[in-house]
Design brief:
Layout: E1 59-63, H1 69-82, E2 91-93, H2 97-104, E3 114-119, E4 125-138, E5 141-153, H3 162-175, E6 181-186, E7 195-203, H4 206-211, H5 223-229, E8 241-243, H6 249-260, E9 265-267, H7 271-278, E10 285-291, E11 298-306, E12 309-311, E13 319-320, E14 322-330, H8 335-348, E15 353-357, H9 363-366, E16 372-383
Parallel strand pairs: 5-6, 14-15
Antiparallel strand pairs: 1-3, 2-12, 3-4, 4-5, 4-9, 6-16, 7-15, 7-16, 8-10, 10-11, 11-14, 12-13
The chain binds 2-oxopentadecyl-CoA.
2-oxopentadecyl-CoA is lined by residues 15-18, 82-84, 146, 148-153, 158-164, 167, 170-171, 174, 180-182, 184-186, 188, 190, 383-384.
């Protein structure tokens, strides 16, 4: 009997579904040199299964029309009660309807990639998965992809192998559009992350964060010293700092294209996508530019999106208001100064916490601006694309919502 040598990456878990998919596998070995590019070649569209995959007999597929208020109420009810929780089940993501509409309808989106599963008898929505199209640079090569997100199965239907059917169905619909790669992130480890990132948190409302158990009072710290430690000025400091406007779209697109080209994985932003994703929408996405007061040139850009969490069992508070750092480009203003200003804006708008991943150049300001490392990790994945080497967080230029 010969045993496969165990490397750090060789987990003993057998992935019945993922073993069958065109993704990297642990048994591929981490030392073995990997090819770079598609794992499976595209099939002729006419060979793709025309009918949806079979669901267990009590369930049926539906398309969730995100423009329909009644359907969005159902999607919101499913996600707000059943979507991602932290390891201690204290907080659960509470994506708003407005946010979901924004996230799911970028230019060129496909309505039938917003997939629901209903109980046949009651018509209750019990599961959801979505894809949106995206153009992503992978080591300089432009790849058309689907970004897969919001995979959610009602708590009562877990561990019944429904997720693999949903993933196969979204894959089929993506293939029908002649797209063969996808990217997704998850808190769980699956075969095999291309990168593993860490969340960092900057307290804005430390008292509430401590009250609800999000953070703890540090040893030898009192509440009033903690509040003082995280205090922020009442106004931004950089001259010319202002909200992004429609007229800034060409300049912001140029800034982003220039900046993002240095990363191994990064979106290919057109003006249309920048206009859609980065123009401010209240309680969804905030974006700011620095306009040089004399030359009126836009030199820097920063943004965050709004993703509150439900506080599951708290007496005094029901929701944690969190800002998540999105895309930034600093060409003239030091990045740490730009980030200090965005923290000030979030504080002024009553956010409780500001979250950021250790991707792009974020590590250069996290400690300085009093972010602390969280216990959650976020793993990035590619579907049907193999990289010749793993990617460091600072080589990632892509943020998924
Ligand atoms: S990550 C958020 C995922 N959602 C949640 O965590 C919400 C709470 N949890 C649930 O609703 C962002 C359920 O636990 C879910 C699993 C639905 C997660 N990704 O049905 P079974 C995203 O949305 C595998 C991928 O019995 P369940 C990204 C698991 O490893 N696979 O489980 C989504 C196992 O397979 P294995 C995941 O607990 C990306 C199988 O599912 C997964 O009732 C999707 C078990 O299925 C996850 N997060 O339901 C992939 N969690 O092989 C897109 C578990 O290990 C791929 N599993 O036996 C690309 C597709 C497009 C390609 C186009 C070319």
């Amino acid at each position: 009997l010969t045993r496969r040598p165990r490397t750090a990456l060789t987990l003993d878990k057998w992935h019945m579904f993922w073993e069958t998919q065109p993704v990297r596998h642990y048994k591929d070995g981490e030392n073995q040199e990997q090819m770079e590019g598609a794992i499976d070649v595209p099939q002729p569209i006419s060979d793709i299964k025309q009918e949806p995959y079979n669901l267990p007999s009590n369930y049926e597929w539906c398309v969730c029309d995100v423009t329909n208020d009644r359907i969005m109420k159902e999607v919101y009810a499913l996600l707000s009660n059943n979507y991602v929780e932290d390891d201690d089940n204290m907080f659960r993501f509470d994506y708003s309807v407005q946010f979901l509409r924004w996230a799911l309808q970028p230019p060129g989106y496909f309505p039938d990639w917003h997939i629901g599963v209903r109980a046949k008898a009651s018509k209750k929505l019990v599961a959801f998965i979505t894809g949106i199209p995206a153009r992503v640079h992978v080591r300089g090569k432009l790849v058309f992809m689907a970004e897969i997100n919001f995979l959610c199965i009602h708590k009562k239907l877990r561990a019944k192998r429904l997720a693999p059917v949903m993933i196969k169905e979204v894959t089929r619909r993506v293939h029908l559009e002649n797209i063969w790669q996808a990217t997704y992130t998850a808190g769980v480890v699956l075969p095999v992350p291309i990168a593993t990132c860490q969340y960092w948190h900057r307290s804005l409302n430390p008292k509430k964060l401590i009250d609800v158990g999000f953070s703890r009072l540090a040893p030898r710290m009192t509440m009033s010293r903690t509040v003082k430690l995280y205090h922020l000025p009442k106004e931004t400091l950089t001259p010319g700092f202002r909200a992004m406007e429609k007229q800034d779209v060409p300049a912001v697109t140029q800034l982003l294209q220039g900046y993002l080209s240095q990363f191994v994985i990064a979106p290919d932003f057109s003006e249309a996508v920048v206009e859609y994703l980065l123009l401010p929408i209240k309680n969804v996405v905030n974006s700011y530019v620095i306009e040089n007061p004399e030359s009126h040139i836009i030199t820097d850009f920063c943004s965050f999106y709004t993703l509150p969490s439900t506080i599951i069992d708290s007496m005094n508070h029901t929701q944690l208001k969190a800002a998540y750092l999105y895309y930034n480009v600093a060409t003239v203003t030091p990045l740490v100064q730009l980030m200090n200003d965005i923290l000030i804006m979030a504080k002024l708008s009553n956010y409780d916490v500001f979250n950021a991943l250790d991707i792009m150049h974020n590590e250069s300001f996290l400690k300085n601006l009093k972010f602390g490392p969280g216990d959650g990790h976020l793993h990035y994945y590619l579907y049907n694309y193999s990289l010749s080497a793993p990617v460091k967080p600072l080589e990632l230029g892509l943020v998924l919502l």
